[in-house]
Specification:
3 copies of one chain form a homotrimer. Chain A is built from 11 helices and 9 strands. Chain A is α/β, with parallel strands linked by helices. Chains in contact: A-B, A-C, B-C.
C-alpha cells in the first residue's frame, strides 16, 4: 500500500483554484455551516468575502430545510453542544439524500472522548472532505496512519493542515507550504478554512479539486495578508480583503514564488 | 389605496438624523438585543460606536428584567433557537407593558416555514418598526404587497432594505440609495442596522423619525467606509470608525451629494 | 480595618508584568474560558495574541476534561444560559480539585437577581481572582465596601476596573490609570481582560502578581492602540497588534510615562 501519494501537478492545481474561485464569485452558492459560536463571524465573513452565501442555524427543526436550500454543508464539531449535535444528526442524512457534498471538521477531537466517538460515527458516513490538523487526524486514524490511509479507509478526501498543508484522496496528493504563523494567532482560522472549502465544494464537480482550490486560495490570501500585517488584528482584516480581491494571476504568482 | 407613499422632505430627514444621533451620544440609552450569535459582536459594536449601551442575554428567566432596564428592545429571528424563542415570548409582552418601543427583524423568514409562522405571530403584536429585506417582506406581506401596505396592515413602520432603502409608515415615505455593495460582504450588517435602529428608537419620540435617523446614519457611515476600504475586512473597521466620529455636517453633505 | 491598601512599587510591578508576559509567550499555556457568545471571538483573540491557547466549550459533559487539560479557568457570567451555568457547576470543582487557578467575572451581576445569587455562591468558593467593574463590586460587596474589604472577606484577589484600574489582595494594592475611553466602545473588552488575566494566572505563581501583569499589559496595549486609532473599529485591531508585539521595554516606558 502506497503511503505517500504522488504529487499533483502544480500548474494544474493553480488553474483549478483560479477556475473554481471565479465560479464561486459568479454563482454565489448558498452554503450551510454548522459551527461553534466563536467561529461563526469569521467563517461567515470568509465565505462572503470569497463570494458564497452562508447560513448558520443549528435549530434541529429547521436545519433540513436549510441544507436542502444550500449547495454544500459544513459540519464543525468545535464547542459541540446538544442542539448542534442533534442538528448534525439530521443535516448529514439530508445532505446525503439530496446529493449535497459535506465536510467534517473534527475540532479538538483529541481532547474529549465523547466528541471522538461522535466524529468516528460521522466518518463512517463518508464525508466528502475531512479537514483537520495532524493531532486530530492521528486521533481518528490511529497511531502511525497517515492522511492517505485515512482517505482510503473512509472514502473521503483529507485536507490536513499544519506547517505544510496537504490534500489527499488516497491516490492523488497535493502539498503547499504557504501559510503564515499569524494564522495560528487568530481564533477559528482553521474553521474558516473548512467553511471556505464548503464554498468550493458547492461549485466543484470533484472533491479533491475543491480541496485544492480552497487551500490554495486560503494560503495565498494568508501570504498576502502576512506581507502587510503588524500583528494578528491587522492580519485578519488584510486576509478578508485579500480573499475578496484576489485575482487568478496573483494566485499563480504567489504559489509559484515559494 | 395609495401604494407609493409621498416623499418625506430630504432636509427635514437630515435634520432629524443629526438631532437623534446627537441625542443618542448624549443619553447613552440601554438597548436590549435578542439576536443570533453570529450577529452579536457586530450589533453590540455598532450600538457602542453610535453611543448606546447594549445588553444581549436570551435567558428566559432574566430577560424581562433586562427589557425593563432598557429603553428599546430588538427582536432578531436569525438562527432562532428554542431559548431565544422563549425569551422573545416573554420580552415582547414586557416591552409592551412598560411602553418600550421594539423592533422586529425577521431574518431569513422566507427560508423556514416554522420561522415564518412565528414572525407572523409577532407581527400581529405590532412591532414599532419592522426591518427586513425585500424577500422577507414579500414572504410576510404576500405576493404583490409593497412595504406601505404592510405598514398599514400591521400599524408598524417598515424599514425595507435593498439597493434602495425605504422607510414607510403607510402614509409618509423616505428613500435613500447610499449603500455600498461591500455591505453585502460583511456578515450580519442587516442585523447591525436593526440594532442601531433600536438605539434610535430609544431616544426618538416617533418611530418613523427613528427609522429615518438610523438608515441615514447607517448608510452615510457605509458610504464613508466604502470610500477608503480595500475589501470587506477594512470596510467593517472603517464603518465602525465612521459611525463613532460622524458629524451632523458630514451627514448632511453625504446625503445631499448623491 | 485598613481600607486603602498600600501602593505596590511601580518598578517591581513593571518587572513582574514583563517577566510574566515573556513566560506566557514561551510556555503557551492552555486556558479554558467559559464565556458569552458575544465575548468569545475577542477573548480568544486576545489570549492568542498574548501567547496562550484558549478552549471555550460549555458542554457540561466534557468541560471537566477541558479544565483538567488547561492551566487556568475563566468563568464569565455574561449572558449566562442554563448550559453554561451547569458547566460552571462542574468546572469550578474540577479546577479546585486539580489545583488550577480560576477567575470569576460577574458581568452585569447588578442587573439580574438570579445572576447575583449565583455569583455569590461562586464567590464563596474563593475564586483566585475576581475581575469586575465598580457597579458589579458594589452589588456583591454591599454598600460602602471597597475592593480591599471584598478581597479579605473572600480570600480572593480583586481586579477592579474603571477610570483607574486597581488590584488588591486586601493588604497589597496597585493602581494604574492608563486606560482609553475607546475601550468602553468595543464590546466585551472587560471580558477580554478577564480572559487575559486567566492567561497570566496560568504562568504565575502568585495571583496578585498575575493580576498586576495582566492589567499592565492590557492597559499598555490599550494606550498604544488609542494613540493610532480613529475610532473603536481601528482601536480593536491596533489593540490586538500591540498585544502581540509589545516588548518589556515599551511596557515600562508607557507605564512610567503617565
Amino acid at each position: 500500500m502506497r503511503t505517500t501519494p504522488e504529487d499533483f501537478p502544480l500548474e494544474q492545481a493553480i488553474a483549478i483554484a483560479g477556475t473554481l474561485l471565479a465560479r464561486l464569485r459568479r454563482e454565489r452558492p448558498a452554503v450551510h455551516v454548522l459551527t461553534s459560536p466563536v467561529a461563526m463571524p469569521l467563517s461567515a465573513n470568509v465565505l462572503l468575502a470569497a463570494g458564497a452565501e452562508p447560513s448558520l442555524t443549528s435549530r434541529p427543526e429547521v436545519v433540513e430545510e436549510f441544507v436542502i436550500a444550500s449547495r454544500a454543508l459544513v459540519v464543525n464539531l468545535g464547542m459541540l453542544d446538544a442542539d448542534r449535535e442533534t442538528a448534525i444528526e439530521r443535516a448529514v442524512p439530508a445532505a446525503l439524500a439530496h446529493g449535497r457534498p459535506w465536510l467534517l471538521d473534527p475540532v479538538k477531537v483529541d481532547q474529549a472522548g465523547k466528541r471522538r466517538r461522535f466524529a468516528l460515527d460521522l466518518l463512517h458516513r463518508q464525508p466528502t472532505v475531512l479537514r483537520a490538523n495532524h493531532a486530530e487526524i492521528a486521533c481518528l486514524a490511529g497511531a502511525g496512519q497517515e492522511p492517505g490511509a485515512l482517505a482510503r479507509a473512509f472514502g473521503t478526501v483529507v485536507l490536513a493542515t499544519g506547517t505544510v498543508d496537504q490534500v489527499t484522496d488516497g491516490s492523488r496528493g497535493f502539498r503547499i507550504g504557504l501559510g503564515s504563523p499569524l494564522m495560528q494567532r487568530v481564533t477559528a482560522m482553521g474553521c474558516a478554512l473548512s467553511a471556505l472549502t464548503g464554498g468550493f465544494l458547492a461549485v466543484a464537480g470533484d472533491a479533491f479539486e475543491a480541496a485544492i482550490g480552497a487551500i490554495i486560495t486560503f494560503d495565498v490570501a494568508g501570504d498576502m495578508a502576512a506581507g502587510e500585517a503588524r500583528g494578528p488584528g491587522s492580519f485578519k482584516i488584510a486576509f478578508l480583503d485579500a480573499l475578496y480581491g484576489l485575482s487568478p494571476d496573483e494566485l499563480g504568482r504567489r504559489v509559484r514564488g515559494k
